[in-house]
Design goal:
Blueprint: H1 2-30, H2 40-82, H3 88-121, H4 129-160, H5 164-187, E1 193-195, H6 199-211, E2 219-222, E3 233-236, E4 243-247, H7 248-253, H8 256-271, H9 274-292, H10 298-303, H11 310-350, H12 353-366, H13 375-381, H14 387-393, H15 401-404
Helix pairs in contact: 1-2, 1-11, 2-3, 3-4, 3-11, 4-5, 4-11, 5-9, 6-8, 8-11, 8-12, 9-11, 11-12
């Protein structure tokens, strides 16, 4: 049984690594061509940023692959010996917490390099060591408080019910929904949220929300720039906790009409029920995972030198869930890309195509988002359509798109033709 699980994990690793290498090669060639959508300087800079982050991701994947085999070879057994005096849900909490903490420490160099080296090099990160430590302490407290409770309850379910996986799925799915509802309150631990100071913009946004019957708990500005210079906006929470959040960087860079177009896109997701569709999709994914791991054979625990107890079941789910998510991702991403097109259409009707196009162009330039990708990478990893395709659907034909059609060196590598 372990051999089958390892084979699945290796297949997932090889395909993901191959896809990343194809993406690096594609972007390296594409960034030497005529600039598309972005200004020539930003086009090259975005290509370089994409290549650097992708190379770090590849290195991190190899590192994680080695750690995976170290864990299943001796690491889990060693951790089991360290926690041998504990039983039941107590052992599950201590064992899983230690596993996560160790993995976090082992992966810390990649996170620090990404935040303090690459992101600072390209003008994104404003993170300071002090703020990083503060964020780490806050997120650790959240994990130890709430994560440990989730682990404890799941462990109790596993040891209390023969068909534990059904009840386990229900519990995890409900927890997932609650996290989405409470997310705005958790975010208050990390960011400061204030009502918009621009009263004119606030009134325009409220009029926009009222025009489609969207109810929220308010429109807020987030001090995201203290960590990062990227532009973004989102609707957070569910039910009465819903709120509109604009990054201060977005407010600074976009005009009122462009901001309304971006919010119109987000309203499209709300009106089309995409939030609830995504929750439903995650419900199917969670159910699939729990159904697969609901009846693990005793042989698997013996091969991993673990006892068939809640802590071992949970750690096996955690370690072998990534391949399942990866192979379900193309279907999930395809549905998400379809929803993005529909949201663009809704947003452009609510505001204007010109304003949405201008907003997307500014977002791409400010966020240094390279507009072209290898089709295989898009297939697996793109939850949004390539920006080239989104702009073409909105009627945009400028900034090098026409020239791309005649570039044989990239033909077939980017979906830009009608």
């Amino acid at each position: 049984m372990l051999e089958i699980a390892i084979a699945g994990y290796c297949l997932y690793f090889l395909i993901s690594i191959y896809t990343s290498f194809m993406q690096v090669d594609y972007v390296k060639r594409a960034k030497t061509k005529n600039a598309v959508i972005l200004t020539p300087t930003k086009f090259i800079e975005a290509g370089n940023y994409s290549v650097e982050t992708q190379r770090l991701s590849i290195l991190s994947s190899f590192y994680d692959f080695i750690l995976f085999f170290m864990w299943i070879s001796f690491g889990l057994a060693f951790l089991d010996d360290m926690t041998i005096t504990y039983q039941g849900w107590t052992k599950a909490v201590i064992f899983i917490d230690l596993f996560i903490i160790i993995n976090w420490f082992l992966g810390l160099p990649f996170e620090l390099y990404s935040t303090f080296k690459i992101d600072k090099k390209y003008g994104f990160s404003n993170m300071t060591p002090k703020l990083y430590i503060q964020d780490t302490i806050k997120s650790s407290i959240l994990f130890l408080l709430f994560g440990s409770v989730v682990i404890a309850v799941l462990a109790l379910i596993i040891e209390s019910f023969p068909s534990w996986w059904i009840y386990g799925f229900v519990f995890i799915f409900v927890t997932f929904v609650l996290i989405n509802m409470l997310a705005p309150y958790f975010m208050m631990m990390f960011n400061k949220f204030e009502p918009l100071k621009d009263e004119e913009l606030s009134q325009k946004i409220k009029a926009l929300l009222d025009s489609v019957g969207f109810k929220s708990s308010g429109v807020f500005s987030s001090d995201a720039s203290k960590r990062d210079n990227r532009l973004n906006a989102y609707f957070g929470g569910l039910g009465t906790s819903k709120r509109v959040v604009l990054f201060d960087t977005l407010i600074e860079k976009l005009t009122h009409n462009e901001l309304l177009a971006v919010l119109g896109h987000e309203l499209g997701h709300a009106k089309n029920g995409d939030i609830y569709k995504n929750i439903g999709i995650m419900g199917v994914v969670f159910f699939t995972i729990f159904a697969i791991f609901g009846n693990l054979p005793e042989e698997l625990f013996l091969q991993l030198h673990l006892n068939n107890e809640p802590y071992a079941v949970i750690i096996i789910i955690m370690m072998f869930t990534s391949p399942i998510f990866f192979f379900l991702m193309p279907l999930m991403s395809a549905m998400s890309r379809h929803n993005e097109y529909a949201a663009d259409e809704f947003g452009s009707d609510l505001a204007s195509e010109e304003d949405l196009v201008n907003a997307l162009l500014k977002l791409a330039n400010e966020n240094k988002s390279f507009p072209l990708s290898h089709p295989l990478y898009i297939f697996f990893f793109y939850s949004h359509p390539p920006l080239v395709d989104r702009l073409k659907e909105l009627g945009y034909t400028g900034a090098g798109i026409a020239q791309m059609k005649d570039d044989d060196s990239l033909k077939g590598d980017c979906k830009i033709d009608e």
